[in-house]
Design a protein that fits this description.
The chain is α/β, with parallel strands linked by helices. The chain contains 14 helices and 17 strands.
Amino acid sequence: MDNKIRSAEILCVGTELLLGDIVNTNAAFLSQKLAELGICVYKHTAVGDNPERLKAALRCALESADMVITSGGLGPTYDDLTKETVAEHFGRQMELDAHSLCRIEEYFKKTGRVMTENNRKQAMMPKGAVIFDNDYGTAPALALCGGEGNTKTVIMLPGPPNEIIPIFNEKVMPYLEGRRNSVIVSRNVHIFGMGESAVENVIGEIMKKSENPTVAPYCKEGEVRLRVTASAADGDEARKMCDSVIERISNTEVGQYIYGIDCETLERAALEFLRQRGLSFACAESCTGGLISKRMTEISGASEVFLGGCVTYANEAKMRLLGVREQTLAEHGAVSEQTAAEMARGVREALGADVGVSVTGIAGPTGGTPEKPVGTVFVGISTKTGEQVRKLSLSPKKSREYIRSVSASNAFDMVLKSGL
C-alpha cells in the first residue's frame, strides 16, 4: 500500500479568521514548509467554529488531497471541535491520553495557575492518534490516519503561531519526511531596475516552456522576484536543476539587473557587497527621513559596515551638517542633482566613510511643481573617485510610502553598481 503524501490542503479553523480579527499567517507558514517536503498544497480554506461547516470542509479536502493539516480548534472550550470532528470522520472514539493530561497539569503548576476542569478536554484524543507534545502551550498536536486501506492523513495543530511554528519544525517535519514523495527546492532570483512586464518580455519563453523547474514572477515595490522551483528525488538534484535555469536567465538582458540569488533584500546585498570589500558606509537623507538607516540597521552585523547617517530635511541642516553650499541651494534648489552630489560627498567626509549616499526629492502628495513634480528624486553616491547622481521620475500618483521606499532602494542599488 502506497502511503506517500503527494498533496495537501490546509484548513484553518476559527471564526476570528473570517471576521478579520487576526491575519492568517499559519497558512503561509505551512505552505512554505510543505513545499520544502515536496508536498503540493492544493488549497487553503478557513472555516468558522461551526461543526457542520467544519465537517463539510474536512470531507471536501480529504476527497482531493492525501493529507489535510488543520490549525486551531484544539482548545478547552465548547467550540473547539477539530479533534472531535476528525475522529467522527474516521469513525474513531475519543479517549483520555494520560501522558497529555499529566503534561497539561504540570504546565499549570509551573505557571502558578489553577487548572479548570475543561482543560482535561485538551487531553482527549481520537483512538490511534500519533500525539506530538506541545512544549509551548497546553494543547498537544496530533496526527490521525484513516487505516484499513485508507492512507488519508489529518494533522491537527494548535492555532497560536508561537506554538504551531516550533511544533511543526521539531515534531511534524520529522514525521512527514518518511512519507514524502519527492523534494522540492526553490531558489529566488532578485531583480531591481527592470519591471515585471519587461522581464517577462525577455525570458517569456523560458518561463512558458519550463515545467520542471518552473519559473514564476512576483512583484514588490520597485522589484521583481523570480522563483525557480524544481522537484526531484533529492535536494542536490533539485538544486542543480534550478541552477541550470538561473544560468539561462542570467545570460539574458535580465542578468544585468539581478542583484542576488536567495538574497532577502537590496540592503542585505549592499551590506554584503561592502563587507566583502572592507568598505564603510554612511548616508544623508532628506525625503526618505532615515529609511536608508533603518533598513540597514535592521540587519544584524550592520555595524561592520554602517557608520551612521544624517537626516537633513531643512536647507540649514544640509549646509551646517553636510557642507552643502548656499549657492548650490539658491541656484539649483534642494531637490537637484547638484545638491544630491554635495550631500553624498558631505556625509562621506563628515563621517569618514568610504561610501556616502544621499537622497533628496519630493515624496508628495504635496510640494510638487511643474518643473519638479511629485516623484522627482535625486539619489547620489560619493566615493574617493567622485560623485554620481541618478534622477528618478516616479509616478506622482504613487503613495508617499512607495516613493520613499523606491528611493531608498535605488541608493542601495547604486552601491551595488558603483564598480568599487
